[in-house]
Amino acid sequence: MTGSSRRYELHPDRLFPADPASRSIARGLYERVRELPIVSPHGHVDPGMLAGDEPFRDPASLFVTPDHYVTRLLHAHGVDLAELGVGQGELDEKAARLAWRRLCEHWAEFRGTPIRYWLEVELAEIFGVNRRLDAATADATFDEIAAKLAGPAFRPRALYRRFGIDVLATTDDPCDDLSAHAALRDDPSWRGRVVPTFRPDAYLEPSAPAWRERIDVLGRVADVDTGTYDGYVAALEKRRRYFIDHGATATDHSHLDLGTEPLVAREAYRIYAAALTGTATQDECTAFRRHMLAQMARMSCDDGLAMALHPGIVRNHHGPTFERFGPDTGHDIPARLEVTRALRPLLERYGTHPGFHLVLFTVDESLYSREIAPLAGFYPSVYVGAPWWFLDTPDAIRRFRLAVTDSAGFGKTAGFVDDTRAFCSIPARHDLSRRVDAGVLAQYVAEHRLDEDEATEVIVQLTDRQPRRAFKLEEES
Amino acid sequence: MTGSSRRYELHPDRLFPADPASRSIARGLYERVRELPIVSPHGHVDPGMLAGDEPFRDPASLFVTPDHYVTRLLHAHGVDLAELGVGQGELDEKAARLAWRRLCEHWAEFRGTPIRYWLEVELAEIFGVNRRLDAATADATFDEIAAKLAGPAFRPRALYRRFGIDVLATTDDPCDDLSAHAALRDDPSWRGRVVPTFRPDAYLEPSAPAWRERIDVLGRVADVDTGTYDGYVAALEKRRRYFIDHGATATDHSHLDLGTEPLVAREAYRIYAAALTGTATQDECTAFRRHMLAQMARMSCDDGLAMALHPGIVRNHHGPTFERFGPDTGHDIPARLEVTRALRPLLERYGTHPGFHLVLFTVDESLYSREIAPLAGFYPSVYVGAPWWFLDTPDAIRRFRLAVTDSAGFGKTAGFVDDTRAFCSIPARHDLSRRVDAGVLAQYVAEHRLDEDEATEVIVQLTDRQPRRAFKLEEES
Amino acid sequence: MTGSSRRYELHPDRLFPADPASRSIARGLYERVRELPIVSPHGHVDPGMLAGDEPFRDPASLFVTPDHYVTRLLHAHGVDLAELGVGQGELDEKAARLAWRRLCEHWAEFRGTPIRYWLEVELAEIFGVNRRLDAATADATFDEIAAKLAGPAFRPRALYRRFGIDVLATTDDPCDDLSAHAALRDDPSWRGRVVPTFRPDAYLEPSAPAWRERIDVLGRVADVDTGTYDGYVAALEKRRRYFIDHGATATDHSHLDLGTEPLVAREAYRIYAAALTGTATQDECTAFRRHMLAQMARMSCDDGLAMALHPGIVRNHHGPTFERFGPDTGHDIPARLEVTRALRPLLERYGTHPGFHLVLFTVDESLYSREIAPLAGFYPSVYVGAPWWFLDTPDAIRRFRLAVTDSAGFGKTAGFVDDTRAFCSIPARHDLSRRVDAGVLAQYVAEHRLDEDEATEVIVQLTDRQPRRAFKLEEES
User: Fold this and answer.
1) Which of A351, A352, A409 sits opposite B113 (nearest CB)?
2) Rounded to the nearest 5 degrees, what angle is found at the Cα of B87, between the Cα atoms of B85 and B92?
3) Residue B380 CB: number of other CB atoms within 10 A?
4) What pathway, per the record (chains A, B, C) (predicted)?
5) Residue contact C378–A15, C-beta within 8 A
6) How far is the alpha carbon of B109 from chain C, nearest alpha carbon, in Å?
7) Domains of chain C
8) Which of B78, B132, C292, C364 would give a disulfide with C337, using CB separation of 3.0 to 4.6 Å?
């Protein structure tokens, strides 16, 4: 192992405000929540990974290839996604070493980004690697991490325990049999809690690729004839119940806009029938999807699943990359979003329904103070979703708190979501959020806007109670 | 009186920056304006309250029921507006105690909000109540405040004097006879200044509820036949003169958008006639309202009334609540707004007219640096309105100053507006604004962007000169 | 010379954070780049000024009349542009003194603005005038500056050397013969580097004033028949090559929107032919311009010119002022902009082309975290342009860094551009940017998000490497 590269220590005060008085308060607040279990109500971890508990293959498969945060910035600096192993299935050692090397070579380009922050914390805290990555030591760090990955302490279940995860929600296709969730639940040696989330996007939008085929599968899996609109709705309701039976507490939805205008029954029937025969226009498909989003709220009022909305993303922006490497390869780009008018039809119908929870995320920061916080400050159902995707970063989380607290307080926010495919980044991401919240609350205390005893209660509330409450993840009976 | 609940002191340095050097500068700047009289150029206090000078009824009527800032956040936490006395007229003691209790029970939910900040300051500074509200002491604090309200020192006029209000503008219907304003003006024992503001929204938008009936009343009150467009315009002009005769210096307008495209005369005649017979389309009604907003600017050039625009709010977002409780019940939600193009027709015609003042408010923060400050940085008529409604808070005011000063300086901003129905919150709101401005200016001084003697002049200017200047509230001769 | 007005010293710590620990770090970072040469990849200096090297005429011609930042804020405070010499060609001494006096009289209105900051630095550092401007000393400072301007040390070339400018890009009409650039290049006594920038806006938009005449001139200058679309394209390509031969490394484009949808060839031919005969509709002209913007990207892929986009400005907002004083007179106002969808056609075609550089500016701050940084964080071609025009100020630059670094890091930003017509403001503007970047990076270091050795590398990178890289201004061979 060469000793040429720069070593670092994770500073205990990292991310706290620079002002000494505020920093001291932040330290105390953070200390209160540092060791609290992780509540992860939204993410993209594969439940089969925990059910199977196989060792992770290599450092690249763990840190580079599947993480589009990492690959997109390397691509932005001219690295071909193929060199990072994207879209190639399991990598052999040579390919894995190459992908890892590309990351190490471009380490300086990650300066100042949360990606670098997370990776540094993961490497230091989980793997004891606390040397800056660089080209000269790429193979050495690869070997060092790979050696650890082979040991039992680095298998998924061991890490789950070590990370202190209390509950982890996955994101799942409505037709998924949830066998991995069931296997975990039925395994007496497993003490964790992994719950599925009902994610029906591709079934609600008739113009989505392979919608017709999905509808057939839905019919088969639900054992309901989806040849009619009524059957389609019944099948969705049945699959929601199946998810609930497997521990689900929420649905998740990500469409380009938040339209929720319902159709009259006759129109819904007509468009559904046209969609089945492939003759519905794009406008009709969009109108149908908006109708179905309102229907999802109606179903949530009936069956109690919380409803999370992650809208406003133009998916697969670069066609050629999508064709070559598939989806989730770093070019999903946010677009401007409108909430106040778009959600009105849904909120007029279901916004004050007892027990209905609507968690509203955005990657358009201008919405925080203008639309989302005011809505959450009136509608009992509406929770402000955490800063997400491009915004789950120190500065964006600060801006978020300072933008929404005025109108929505702390009690109508939904806690942190890691939203990650990168399993090892979960503790680093939650810790970042706790540190930044501690810093924001320290500012409130230092400016005499909140007493310290109240701020202490608030940081526990933000870390633990709010995500459980918004996503209905209260302790299992 | 129980002593179980937590007592607090209002910290003299509250809202100042945490950094000691900046804080020290902020203290000095604030001290310069702490005692300056209050100039309140826009708000919703009932002038009859001051004319009649009756004691306030009870703590709920004073602090809870009429204040949609308070009721909306309680509603967001599941409290029925009926329990808060909304829409029920005068409350009996039982109902008033219940409303107050609901506030006390949910006090923790107001943490970090300006609503809590204002109420704490009001309770401590006006009523000497400096214990945190909670369920256990709800009746005791109710009684304590109620006892004080019965005394002469807590009547509206006594409070007006104690608050140090120099001038207070109300918001009034064009057909209002302004008798309360006249009564105050003619009362030799009254030393204050309460001026009306001409708010014609409902008369300019033919699709507004009861527009036709209002137009008839307008004709009667103005003694002009409003059966023709020319008569309608003449009636509005006459009522503006009536307002001016009663001390008005400004008009106020709040439509969803800022369109100002004028109609050719023939079109204005035609649509007006159609509106009278109820046959104008929604598009025609909107076009007519935009035309009339430009007409209001033209009238301001003629009669000298400043023109304030508070656009971009979707009113009564939740239909069922509106039907049950009426307007102003906490679900007016901001929407995205466009200014540059919308105001162009108006500004091309009147933007450089000598003496014309256009005060431009927004609840869409993205407009500050992009559209409003650049407009105010060129057009002599345009003043940047203060952060308003969801934005009259410590963090939003800071963001406002740091967003508009670059392009518009301090001298094209319009000072603070409290915009409140909550009479007792007026001094707390103005004090908050002065503290935050002191903090922002302290940052400029600490970063050597402004000398301290200039910052001292600026804070006086922001507190006193700018609102008087923008709203033409110069000392009466 | 009166001594009545207030003297000031430029504080060595100006613009650094107030917190002592952060300030100390900022000082060190700034010191590293304080004396680095200026790389100015985008601006509006007249190259003839440097070629001719005539003395500046007077203080008003240097600081007031041509600088729409200055004149617009004076106009906003009621000063007639005519009194500032706008649109009047060369001013006689009386007119120049009046313009200067108006600035001095209104000096207090510039408090807190970057305009005042730049002017103070320029007056103190270049002219040794370190007294606040005011009416009483207006003539004295005019004389003091005028006397210096007469001397050889204040001629343009001497100032260019004194300012430490390494390379200065101008903005030029495609039909310009670039004789000033050639004269400089061929002058053995000239050691600077002044490169032209190809700015074809008026040639791409058939509805722009005098488009038809321009196309004829283009044909003559390029010696290509522009009577056909193919000829028009060839003429543009030929002029780009002419610019490259004269040192150009970039093109620059400023349209209202960023549409880039290409036309099929037949449509392009048809609309071009219609435009030549004046029969193209506005929609066709817009579609053609969007097509041509994509064509410009295609040409950049072919000839290697970097492509800079400065969109989203409504030009000449106030018609009467435009008619009286012409363009660039302070009422170009930003408008909301959309990037993600508008640029998609261009980026799908050319976004990953090797060597293609697209520098994306905005005056709509909401785009930074939502659209521009995510695009730059994936597409190798996309660079985030510096905060520009209304945003090249201490607070906006801070907001910019904190909004884009999360998604794009430092290495996909394009460095600072001064974008100025005010030659003497160049060093003050670049110094401001270096100071603010030092402050932001100091915050990263103080919060333990970046080590100090890395921050030191980053500030050099932001100051020198990034603008050279994005605009292809690498050292000449």
Assistant:
1) A409
2) 40
3) 20
4) Carbohydrate metabolism; pentose and glucuronate interconversion
5) no
6) 30
7) 55-154 (1.10.2020.10), 162-470 (3.20.20.140)
8) C364
